[in-house]
């Protein structure tokens, strides 16, 4: 029974269309699943709790960080107040009451705290009543009432160390705790807050104490000594006019970095994201206070921080460093080139050696042919015997060279053997 091509074509087209429709439906469902499932696989939002700093300027910066990070970021930072009592921000971090906080780089090392990134400097401000004339800091403090912040603060600890270092008599320096009082001397570690200082009426009749002249820095001055004894400090010069008429001359002092720190057990990925966001937002953070913007050190990872650098921050800093393969790819290329050259050289030597052995055998072949051609049909018996002896001598010499590996047992040697034996046989036949 014959079947026409037309009758076969119709079922085939139906099958083909059915298969095409199934493929289209499967592809459409796959695209729908990708579109619907994409948000589920998007990077989740990470929430972090930032302990609210004590100083007002620090709080302004903290709120600015919260505001900026919440835009176009997978991070959400919540400000939480410091628990009441004597607990510090670092205590709260170690107790698990927060994830990140501000801390000065003069704090004592804590195993449970890690550095994320330096933010801006806190500068040592020492101001005194204009009526107090003093050529040195110890003269300035003698018999003075001093406000250096509350008990336990960085400024108070520093002021106590200064007083102890000068070996002043007990009670000669009295500390006051009321910030609204009118002390003789104020000692504070604080960020540069030009607006607040220039608009504070209590500072109209004060002058800034300077540890010398700007040109003294780096020449063994007292500031250099302070930095030598505490490498976390660095010399800092307030230019003339920093606080308007309050600072008509440059003021030489010291500064310390204000750090963003985190709990050491905070996830590496979260700290990586924090570092990336803070680095990205630094210009916006300090746009209203450009005096706080300080360039990061060229190698932050080697800076002298009070706390160990968090692994997440270190991962971000090393993100652009070459991998092991990339680092040694140049060496590998040189080694590969040398290997190729070495192998090529070996092959060249072997080839030259083979050519030399072949050339040596070619000489034997030429001699055999010359001997064969020298024997004519009318040659005498003595000529034939001499020719055979020469050929056998050549064979003996060739086999000796073969044993000494100066000839190769290849096709050329086989040809020589056959040619020499054939020549001997022909000479004998001619004689017969």
Structural class: alpha/beta
First CA to last CA: what distance?
85 Å
User: Stretches where pLDDT falls below 50 for ≥5 residues?
Assistant: 1-10
Q: How large is the radius of gyration?
A: 46 Å
Number of helices: 13
**What about the largest sheet?**
8 strands, mixed
Average pLDDT: 79
Shape: elongated
- The overall strand count is 10
- The percent range for strand residues is 15-25%
| Helix content class | 40-55%
Which series of helices and strands comes N to C? Answer: HEHEHEEHEHEEHEHEEHHHHHH
What is the topological layout?
Layout: H1 5-41, E1 46-51, H2 56-69, E2 75-80, H3 89-94, E3 100-104, E4 113-129, H4 137-141, E5 145-147, H5 154-166, E6 174-175, E7 185-190, H6 194-198, E8 206-208, H7 222-229, E9 234-238, E10 251-263, H8 268-285, H9 311-317, H10 324-327, H11 329-374, H12 381-403, H13 411-431
Parallel strand pairs: 1-2, 5-6, 5-7
Antiparallel strand pairs: 3-10, 4-7, 4-8, 4-10, 9-10
Helix pairs in contact: 2-8, 8-9, 11-12, 11-13, 12-13
Task: Jot down its keywords.
single chain; 432 residues; alpha/beta; eight-stranded mixed β-sheet; 10 strands; elongated; disordered N terminus
Description:
With 432 residues, the chain is of the alpha/beta class. It contains 13 helices and 10 strands. It has helices at residues 5-41, 56-69, 89-94, 137-141, 154-166, 194-198, 222-229, 268-285, 311-317, 324-327, 329-374, 381-403, 411-431, and strands at 46-51, 75-80, 100-104, 113-129, 145-147, 174-175, 185-190, 206-208, 234-238, 251-263. Strands 3, 4, 5, 6, 7, 8, 9 and 10 form an 8-stranded mixed sheet that branches. Strands 1-2 form a two-stranded parallel sheet. Helix 2 (56-69) packs across helix 8 (268-285).
């Amino acid at each position: 029974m014959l079947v026409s091509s037309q009758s076969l074509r119709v079922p085939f087209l139906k099958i083909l269309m059915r298969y095409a429709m199934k493929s289209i439906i499967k592809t459409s469902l796959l695209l729908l699943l990708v579109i619907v499932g994409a948000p589920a696989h998007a990077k989740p939002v990470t929430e972090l709790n930032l302990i609210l700093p004590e100083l007002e300027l620090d709080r302004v910066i903290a709120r600015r960080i919260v505001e900026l990070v919440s835009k176009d970021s997978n991070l959400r930072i919540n400000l939480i107040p410091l628990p009441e009592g004597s607990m510090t921000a670092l205590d709260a971090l170690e107790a698990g009451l927060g994830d990140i906080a501000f801390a000065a780089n003069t704090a004592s090392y804590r195993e449970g705290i890690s550095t994320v990134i330096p933010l801006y400097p806190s500068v040592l401000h020492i101001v005194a009543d204009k009526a107090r004339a003093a050529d040195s800091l110890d003269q300035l403090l003698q018999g003075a009432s001093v406000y250096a912040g509350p008990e336990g603060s960085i400024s108070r600890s520093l002021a106590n160390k200064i007083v102890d270092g000068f070996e002043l008599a007990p009670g000669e320096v009295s500390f006051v705790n009321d910030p609204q009082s009118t002390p003789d001397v104020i000692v504070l570690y604080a960020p540069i807050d030009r607006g607040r200082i220039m608009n504070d009426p209590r500072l109209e009749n004060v002058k800034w104490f300077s540890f010398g002249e700007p040109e003294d820095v780096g020449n063994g001055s007292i500031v250099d000594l302070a930095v030598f004894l505490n490498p976390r400090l660095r010399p800092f010069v307030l230019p003339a006019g920093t606080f308007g008429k309050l600072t008509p001359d440059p003021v030489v002092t010291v500064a310390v970095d204000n750090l963003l720190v985190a709990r050491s057990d905070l996830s590496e990925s979260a700290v990586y994201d924090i570092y990336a966001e803070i680095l990205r937002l630094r210009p916006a953070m300090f746009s209203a206070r450009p005096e706080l913007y300080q360039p990061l050190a060229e190698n932050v990872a080697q800076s002298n921080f009070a706390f160990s650098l968090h692994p997440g921050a270190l991962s971000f800093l090393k993100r652009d460093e070459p991998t092991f393969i990339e680092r040694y790819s140049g060496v590998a290329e040189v080694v590969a080139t040398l290997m190729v050259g070495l192998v090529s050289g070996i092959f060249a030597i072997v080839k030259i050696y083979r050519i030399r052995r072949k050339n040596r055998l070619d000489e034997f072949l030429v001699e055999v042919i010359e001997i064969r051609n020298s024997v004519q049909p009318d040659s005498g018996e003595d000529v034939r015997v001499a020719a055979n002896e020469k050929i056998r001598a050549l064979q003996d010499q060739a086999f000796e060279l073969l044993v000494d590996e100066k000839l190769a047992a290849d096709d050329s040697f086989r040809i020589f053997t056959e040619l020499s034996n054939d020549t001997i046989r022909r000479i004998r036949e001619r004689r017969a």
